């Protein structure tokens, strides 16, 4: 072996030191922002639940947030897609105002009763805060891409308490069918530290219990494959319906603040007419219930409809926690039909619908293991990969580059640009 090659591993030491320092800085910013966001979200949710009449102010709240974004937030209105686009094709540093705009907009959405999530907010805050370090550390285009990926990982990890899933999500969400390993260490470092920072601020994540597992067998695998097909189709339905409604609202209503005004009115009337309080907000109580007892067969459809209406009409927030609700309640219903424990299938559905809608089967498999224990890993992997395969080549993130999900379509879809 040449002498230079023998010393090649030691040349990684400066790289590790550099990215450990940068990723830690990203993690402190993202983890602290997520902690403040989650604590604020808890307060907003508790207040709304004590004052259910506030749903009638949702249209005005939507108009106010829409107006603020129309006046001051056009440059950051693309949200997660803006960050993904900047990773693929770096142009300019993401404006710092993305952080207060998405934080305030999401908390207001939850306070007044929109059905939105929280991952989008955490990822946008993590990415925007990370990007402010670009000039400080004088990073070039290649390093800036890695920095933004670390910001995504840190935001995702800290908001859900899943550092391994967060690290892989930062790598996997960029392109369908491709992974970038050049950011692996920065993403892992940022994800792990951000999770600990968030916990250090006193944030507690919701625990879930799936009870007894079933052995991996031909019968259990086949049951999960069948369920995975359904999970993937529902994930595709969610993504497609959200995009189509958003596009329709933009075509029919030119003035952006009027879109959430109209959407908020429809949602408020539907909540009142259908007694649909369980389908607004994050829906964590509904998710927990799906692990404890059988739930109505229409619960997943109710959450899906209210979330599509909220996001499609312009309310701020994420998609992932509503997807957890949709998947958990759908899995709860499918379990007895497939002769499987409903709690186990709720756990698999929890991650698999998200896997299909976001095209991130590896991150969601890791998430299942972090949330429910390593024992669920094999069946969760089957469910997530099946859902991923059956959800089509689109998803909730329009900026994802498209490669191919399997070799039969490798020449039928546009290739990823990474």
TrEMBL record:
Lineage of the species this protein comes from: Bacteria, Pseudomonadati, Pseudomonadota, Gammaproteobacteria, Pseudomonadales
The lineage's top-level taxon is Bacteria
Question: Which Pfam families does the entry mention?
Answer: Voltage_CLC (PF00654)
Q: Which organism is it from?
A: Pseudomonas ekonensis
Record keyword Ion transport present = yes
Where are its TM segments located?
20-41, 53-72, 146-171, 216-241, 253-274, 340-359, 371-390
Establish whether keyword DNA-binding is in the entry: no
Cite the CDD domains for this sequence. ClC_sycA_like
UniProt keyword terms in alphabetical order: Ion channel, Ion transport, Membrane, Transmembrane, Transmembrane helix, Transport
InterPro entries in the cross-refs: ClC, ClC-type_chloride_channel
Descriptive protein name: Voltage-gated chloride channel family protein
């Amino acid at each position: 072996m040449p002498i230079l090659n023998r010393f090649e591993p030691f040349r990684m030491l400066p790289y590790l030191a550099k990215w450990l320092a940068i990723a830690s800085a990203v993690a402190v910013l993202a983890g602290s922002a997520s902690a403040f966001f989650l604590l604020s979200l808890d307060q907003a949710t508790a207040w709304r639940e004590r004052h259910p009449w506030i749903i009638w102010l949702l249209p005005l709240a939507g108009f106010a947030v829409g107006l603020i974004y129309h006046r001051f937030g056009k440059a950051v209105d693309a949200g997660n897609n803006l960050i993904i686009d900047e990773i693929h094709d770096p142009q300019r540093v993401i404006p710092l105002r993305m952080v207060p705009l998405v934080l305030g907009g999401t908390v207001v959405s939850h306070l007044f009763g929109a059905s939105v999530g929280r991952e989008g907010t955490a990822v946008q805050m993590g990415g925007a805060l990370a990007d402010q370090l670009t000039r400080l550390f004088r990073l070039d285009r290649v390093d800036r891409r890695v920095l933004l990926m670390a910001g995504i990982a840190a935001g995702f990890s800290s908001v859900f308490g899943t550092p391994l899933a967060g690290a892989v999500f930062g790598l996997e969400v960029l392109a369908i069918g491709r992974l970038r390993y050049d950011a692996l260490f920065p993403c892992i470092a940022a994800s792990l530290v951000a999770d600990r920072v968030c916990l250090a601020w006193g944030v507690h994540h919701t625990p879930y219990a799936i009870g007894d597992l079933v052995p991996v067998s031909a019968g259990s695998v086949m049951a999960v494959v069948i369920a995975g097909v359904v999970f993937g189709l529902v994930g595709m339905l969610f993504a497609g319906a959200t995009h189509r409604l958003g596009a329709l609202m933009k075509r029919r209503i030119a003035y952006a603040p009027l879109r959430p005004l109209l959407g908020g009115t429809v949602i408020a009337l539907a909540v009142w007419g259908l007694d649909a309080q369980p389908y607004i907000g994050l829906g964590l109580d509904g998710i927990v219930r799906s692990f404890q007892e059988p739930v109505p067969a229409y619960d997943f459809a109710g959450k899906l409809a209210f979330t599509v209406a909220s996001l499609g009409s312009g309310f701020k927030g994420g998609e992932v926690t509503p997807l957890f609700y949709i998947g958990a309640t759908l899995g709860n219903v499918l379990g007895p039909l497939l002769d499987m424990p409903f709690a186990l299938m709720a756990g698999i559905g929890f991650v698999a619908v998200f896997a299909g809608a976001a095209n991130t089967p590896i991150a969601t498999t890791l998430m299942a293991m972090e949330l429910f224990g390593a024992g669920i890993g094999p069946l969760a992997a089957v469910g997530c990969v099946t859902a991923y395969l059956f959800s089509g080549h689109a998803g909730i993130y329009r900026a994802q580059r498209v490669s191919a999900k399997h070799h039969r379509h490798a020449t039928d879809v546009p290739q990823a640009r990474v």
